[in-house]
Write a structure and sequence with these properties.
Number of strands: 6
Low-confidence stretches: 1-27
Oligomer: single chain
Number of domains: 2
Radius of gyration: 19 Å
CATH topology of the largest domain: Chalcone isomerase
Number of helices: 4
Distance between the termini: 59 Å
CATH superfamily of the largest domain: Cytochrome P460
Order of helices and strands: HEEHEHEEEH
Mean pLDDT: 86
Helix content: 25-40%
Largest sheet: 6 strands, antiparallel
CATH class of the largest domain: Alpha Beta
């Protein structure tokens, strides 16, 4: 009978860990962003890769640009503007030298993803987000929506790539 108590306790602890992990990773049932009302899409980490990027300067991070099926198809085909329903995700990490690369090459040469910095989304809905070029913007830090001030700055920054439907990255074959 004691084993049944241990099993029940283990299940309860595991359920608590899963719930906490979901909140930290920012699952789809988490908080919505200010202004645009976007939540983290379920399963976005399984989306296909559109491109990769290295951001220099103050941000100094590595980025994977992912897209849902609609965004990937548009990116691959060079379709502009992106169709409604397209969602582009940008997942970013700090980066650090791979210790083995120094041994292999005599200097830090290969770098790998370090701590995550944030995740951002662009959601295409030409009616709902008409005032911002048809895109809604979202940034999440540690699974929580960034401030309203951060979201107010998104469109102004993306306006410089209006000719690419406000999307900085291009498909990397």
């Amino acid at each position: 009978m004691k084993w049944l108590v241990y099993v029940r306790m283990s299940v309860a602890v595991l359920a608590g860990l899963v719930a906490c992990t979901a909140q930290v990773l920012g699952q789809a049932d988490g908080e919505a962003t200010p202004i645009f009302g976007i939540r983290i899409p379920a399963g976005y980490r399984d989306w296909k890769l559109i491109s990769v990027a290295h951001e220099a300067g103050k941000l100094n991070d590595l980025r994977a640009i992912l897209g849902n099926d609609i965004a990937v198809k548009a990116a691959r085909e060079g379709t502009l503007p992106y169709p409604d329903g397209a969602i582009v995700a940008r997942v970013a990490w700090t980066y650090e030298p791979l210790p083995e690369s120094k041994e292999a090459f005599g200097q830090p040469q290969s770098h790998v993803a370090g701590a995550p910095t944030n995740v951002q989304f662009m959601v295409k809905d030409s009616t709902k987000y008409a005032a911002t070029g048809g895109w809604g913007y979202a940034q999440f830090d540690a699974g929580k929506p960034a401030s309203e001030a951060v979201h107010n700055a998104c469109f102004a920054c993306h306006a410089i790539v209006k000719g690419r439907d406000f999307v900085f990255n291009r498909y990397a074959p």
